[in-house]
Amino acid sequence: MIAALPSPPRGYTSTLPPEWADLDVDPADLVVIVGGGELGPLGSSRTRYEMEVDDELSAAGVLELAWTTGLVKWENDPEAGWYDTETGELVPEAELVERYHDKVVANIGVREFVDDGAIDPDHASPLLVSVFLDKDFTFTVSTEAEAREFVKWDPEHTVIQPLADGSDWQVTRKSGTEVRVPRKTKLSRTVGAQIPTGFDPTVWGITPDMVSSIDRVALWNMVATVDAFLSAGFTPTELMRWVHPSQVANTQGTGMGGMTSMQTMYHGNLLGRNKPNDILQEVLPNVVAAHVVQSYVGSYGAMIHPVAACATAAVSVEEGVDKIRLGKAQLALAGGFDDLTLEAIIGFGDMAATADTEMMRAKGIADKRFSRANDRRRLGFVEAQGGGSVLLARGDLALKMGLPVLAVVAYAQSFGDGVHTSIPAPGLGALAAGRGGKDSDLARALNKLGVTADDIAVISKHDTSTLANDPNETELHERLAASLGRSDGAPLFIISQKNLTGHAKGGAAVFQMLGLCQVLRDGVIPPNRSLDCVDDELSTSQHFVWLRESLPLKEKLPLKAGLVTSLGFGHVSGLVALVHPQAFIASLRPEDRADYETRSRERVLAGQRRLASAMAGGRPMYERPDGRRFDHDHDESEKRQEASMLLDPGARLSEDEVYHR
């Protein structure tokens, strides 16, 4: 047997791209995805896709997860190499996979909850229950003022008096007084999809001070955004040399915001615990994106942060696309994130929206198979945490910078569902994307890129595994396909990604979109391994194909385009159409294509090398900008320099990383 070794960076060997006729489209009129990063239950987009397609990790995937979760670290002394953090022993690279594969796989994906600071290890929730004293209860406080505060709360049952030997006061609650006594109650949902157990943001270069002071959702966003930039082979610093900083927008959102900070704020006040003075800011939904702007990107452009429940990331991409098409930005940072805490676990459970753990186990279903979209035995979604960042750019900027295009965003729009009586009930609002059929905005946007209804081969569905959503979404897409003029029997391959990732709410659509980019790149469609038997209610589907094992179409059927649907509580529907990056190539002048492709491949390779270097003790992935990018030796104050930069359309960042007039 040959031991597996992590391969050196070598770019991506994509499948043979589909043939594409030249397009009469100006690249400046296109919006393209030029980078993406995620942090979810499967780790990064790289490790998530490996598990999606192969159900196992490559040597590189094992090493990446072992590194990010603190199982191994690189040391140069006494001998350069990977060291086990628990034992301190040097681990030969050839033994990394055998030693850590099963361990990291056990710590990712859908699994029983582990203690992460927000969920108790015994899977219980604290509860303050009401009891009545059967006799007087007396305690001591240090001041009269404090004693009188107890009287104010319950004057009928409270008596106070000073103690003779000092300044202390005695407080007595009389027999019959109602008091609250803490106890624990068992959670009915004890399986979910947390981010990888042991994930450590400091290995990315995030400082311990930042880790301790900002909400963890903001930390995850920082890591994913750094990954999005660097894996595409460029940095925010380089970006600002090409565009004015007010032309860089941020449209990232979150469904629920900083949930652990919310816990700290409310519980801290109620229980009298110490809490940071600025904890309120970490609760605000927009602050998840604000940290990325102020501590990494340094942009001055549009800031709009959607809150659209489980459709947040799709709405974020719509906002980013709109900003670029309206001329308000040349690059937009989109995406979404959410956390997983007791409050959400209990709340979704009370709504019967999530899969009850004991009921699923009683059916003989393994924990990791609880999320089972379209299956007869599905019983609700499996809650997850995490999300990701998507870099959207105007096509001509991608061309000038040589940025790697992952997909062309042909269409991105959100919809409502009309009059309803239930907030979580699914609807058909996104069907309006097909308004006008072959003359709809969606059809015309695809046709402009050389894509027909039959060229849409893949749909990454929301597919939450709830009884109501999956049939509703199936009907939506069947009707949409008919409206666009899809041929009878033309297959639509379905990706039900949440079978692996669980449902990350606001971050879910990022996993879907980046996953679809990978599918278009490699020509391999991942399966739903939790699907045992398709629900009879879906049997009328004319086009759907549900896979139970990976389908490597590659050059047999080159994939040209796919759709993503993302649906959120409150009747928010998002639909995004992604087209193969070959459409972008077809929009370029023939004489520009080879040079662009060479430069974009170099950026991808540079991104892979950057990650490999950081893992092996090189420069950290995250590097905070030095100062505010102004010249402190300049005669003018920083504020005057900043004002001059903002008013000067030609202002760009210089090689020494400051804005010069």
Automatic annotation (TrEMBL):
CDD domains: elong_cond_enzymes. Residues 615-661 are annotated as: Disordered. One of its GO terms (cellular component) is cytosol. GO terms for biological process: fatty acid biosynthetic process. SMART domains: PKS_KS. Pathway: Lipid metabolism; mycolic acid biosynthesis. The keyword rRNA processing does not apply. GO terms for molecular function: 3-oxoacyl-[acyl-carrier-protein] synthase activity. Keywords: Fatty acid biosynthesis, Fatty acid metabolism, Lipid biosynthesis, Lipid metabolism, Transferase. Residues 125-580 form the Ketosynthase family 3 (KS3) domain. Residues 621-642 have a biased composition (Basic and acidic residues). PANTHER family: 3-OXOACYL-[ACYL-CARRIER-PROTEIN] SYNTHASE, MITOCHONDRIAL, POLYKETIDE SYNTHASE-RELATED. Belongs to the thiolase-like superfamily. Beta-ketoacyl-ACP synthases family. This is Beta-ketoacyl synthase, C-terminal domain protein. It comes from Mycobacteroides abscessus 1948.
